[in-house]
Design the sequence.
């Protein structure tokens, strides 16, 4: 297991993750709460959330983005199309950025990287253009380097993410069907050179059939650890 040096990661089911650093900076990624069948029952988010990161525009990643950002007065960080949409719905603080870029806030450097997926925003009965889907690398001062892949297929340029950012822990979708499954995620973990994988985006709906056990099988002998936790549990 990677040494998280005081950083805590709480899995909130599906792709939703809450991270707080040793210094107390807090980040929520892909807030899918009210309609998330795997959101931990009764789990209360802390009053203070500094940043909310959105990987792409699908409902299972941003359906609670606007409400949560307003309630916690958080800064929404994402590709400009999604941040602009959130601001059009009344979110006050947004930081639009794009792939290859890094934005610093307190003790965290947020880097936006590519993902292989799609990204429309369902807005009433319209589909709004959501820009490109992305992943995020979080480089925490005096802490670990974390990677949240968003929804993606495995792609060979994950080796560039390794070369450039040296992530040690990756949050990877393994459910298959809409993203890579366990076999793809195992290859992704190897490309990324991470020590630890926190599997996400599985088991939420029956169609997301990939399991951590399969991922472990594909990673046997590599030394890469799979930390499968239940929604509401944390890595620290
Ligand atoms: Ni998606
Ligand atoms: Mn998804």
Sequence:
């Amino acid at each position: 297991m990677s040494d998280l040096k005081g950083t805590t990661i709480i899995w909130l089911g599906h792709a939703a993750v809450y991270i707080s650093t040793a210094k107390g900076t807090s980040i929520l990624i892909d807030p899918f709460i009210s309609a998330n069948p795997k959101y931990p029952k009764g789990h209360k988010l802390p009053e203070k959330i500094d940043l909310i990161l959105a990987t792409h525009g699908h409902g299972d990643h941003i359906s609670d983005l606007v409400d949560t950002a307003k309630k916690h007065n958080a800064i929404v960080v994402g590709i400009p199309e999604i941040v602009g949409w959130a601001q059009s719905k009344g979110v006050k603080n947004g930081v639009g950025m794009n792939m290859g870029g890094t934005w610093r806030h307190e003790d965290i450097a947020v880097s936006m990287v590519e993902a292989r997926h799609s990204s429309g925003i369902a807005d009433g009965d319209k589909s709004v253009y959501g820009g490109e889907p992305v992943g995020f690398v979080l480089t925490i001062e005096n802490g670990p380097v974390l990677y949240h892949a968003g929804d993606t297929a495995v792609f060979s340029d994950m080796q560039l993410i390794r070369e450039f950012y040296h992530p040690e822990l990756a949050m990877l979708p393994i459910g298959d069907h809409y993203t890579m499954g366990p076999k793809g995620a195992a290859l992704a973990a190897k490309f990324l050179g991470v020590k630890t994988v926190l599997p996400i985006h599985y088991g939420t709906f029956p169609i997301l059939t990939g399991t951590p056990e399969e991922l472990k099988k594909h990673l046997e002998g590599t030394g890469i650890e799979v930390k499968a936790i239940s929604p509401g549990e944390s890595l620290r």
Remarks:
- The pocket of manganese (II) ion (ligand 2) is lined by residues 15, 58, 60-61, 151, 178, 201 (CB under 6 Å).
- The radius of gyration is 16 Å.
